[in-house]
# Entry
Amino acid sequence: EVQLVESGGGLVKPGESLTLSCAASGFTFSNARMSWVRQAPGKGLEWVGRIKTKTEGGTTDYDIPVKGRFTISRDDSKKTLYLQMNSLKIEDTAVYYCTTFGSGYWGQGTLVTVSS
Amino acid sequence: QAVVTQEPSLTVSPGGTVTLTCGSSTGAVTSGHYPYWFQQKPGQAPTTLIYDTSNRHSWTPARFSGSLLGGKAALTLSGAQPEDEAEYYCMLSYSGTRGVFGGGTKLTVL
# Structure
């Protein structure tokens, strides 16, 4: 059974940092491009960024609002995807999902709340 | 930055057929945008229905189909069921480097 389990969400103040994790199981993680998607309360889905496989160079792409503040990385030995978020803003408040778009799998999400 | 547009809301009768569309501010949607369609029910994570324009996953009911129609990506639901009431999102890929979601279509089965 495929599982993606996000963790690391919580309440932080503006300007602080937070790192999310996504633990994968049930598929060959190292062969999968992985992405982060977020959803602000009551709003639609927003693409955050993606990391390619190591074979493809492990390159990353980000949406404009998070570029330079967020970093996506992966540890294939741990089958884990990460999202390091720096200089958090109130508008970063959202449920963050990890997903393998190509294979169609989604985690259940983890809530990040940025508030003073 | 590209904007992806969807109908804000649609209504379909049980057993009826409805088509949701997904347009791009940059021009016609093509297979090169690798259109995706997702379904999200309240309080749940999204699920992927369609990838690469028209491919279903093993869990996608056959009543859902994807296509390109009139310069847009389209999701057609034939034989709507009450459980199909949900929010539907499309996503397009631009230059293979970033994805952009549409604003979502709230589908009511009534």
